[in-house]
């Protein structure tokens, strides 16, 4: 049996201390990497640039994102689904992300901080151990 999947684009954004930026959407409990689902005709990088603008107020050029690859993990907010994520390293320079749209909270998280949080499988399994 095939497990239903959700395609997303996700960002690995770190600060000068090596902490990973995670967000929590309104009405949910798990922290995850910023990003989201594509709209028709968007590339994975274009999806991510739009989502980072809408959700965090960041003005970024999709051409500057460095692809890390495709990662699969259990979906945090849709039981029984897997998330298939096109993941990019994103440099935000001096910009300060601000929670907007459906984002209720954002946090800069170190691997040790993550132990006290509910973190989505995509981030906890692939990007926080590093």
Describe the structure.
The chain is of the alpha+beta class and 130 residues long. The protein has one domain: Nucleoside Triphosphate Pyrophosphohydrolase. It is built from 3 helices and 6 strands; from the N terminus they run βββαβββαα. The strands form 2 sheets. Strands 3-1-5-4 form a 4-stranded mixed β-sheet. A two-stranded antiparallel ribbon has the order 2-6. The mean pLDDT is 95.
Beta-strand fraction estimate: 25-35%
The gyration radius over C-alpha positions equals: 14 Å
Q: Which percent range fits the helix content?
A: 10-25%
Number of strands: 6
What is the name of the CATH superfamily? Nucleoside Triphosphate Pyrophosphohydrolase
Largest sheet descriptor: 4 strands, mixed
Which ranges are low-confidence, i.e. pLDDT below 50, for 5 or more consecutive residues?
A: none
Give the overall pLDDT as a whole number: 95
CA-based shape: globular
Continuous helix count: 3
> Judging by the overall fold, what is the CATH architecture?
Alpha-Beta Complex
Element-level helix/strand string: EEEHEEEHH
Find the structural class using helix and strand composition.
alpha+beta
Instruction: Give me the CATH fold name.
Output: Nucleoside Triphosphate Pyrophosphohydrolase
Domain tally: 1
Name of the CATH first level: Alpha Beta
Distance between the termini: 33 Å
* Spatial ordering of strands, largest sheet: 3-1-5-4
């Amino acid at each position: 049996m095939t497990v239903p999947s959700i395609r997303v684009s996700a960002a690995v954004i770190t600060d000068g201390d090596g902490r990973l930026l995670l967000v929590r959407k309104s009405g949910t409990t798990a922290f995850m990497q910023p990003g989201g689902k594509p709209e028709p005709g968007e590339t994975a990088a274009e999806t991510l640039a739009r989502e980072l603008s809408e959700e965090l107020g960041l003005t970024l050029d999709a051409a500057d994102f460095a692809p890390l690859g495709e990662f699969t993990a259990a979906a945090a907010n849709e039981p029984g689904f897997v998330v298939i994520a096109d993941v990019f390293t994103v440099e935000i320079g001096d910009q300060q992300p601000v929670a907007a749209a459906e984002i209720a909270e954002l946090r800069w998280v170190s691997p040790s901080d993550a132990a006290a949080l509910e973190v989505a499988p995509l981030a906890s399994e692939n990007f926080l151990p590093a």
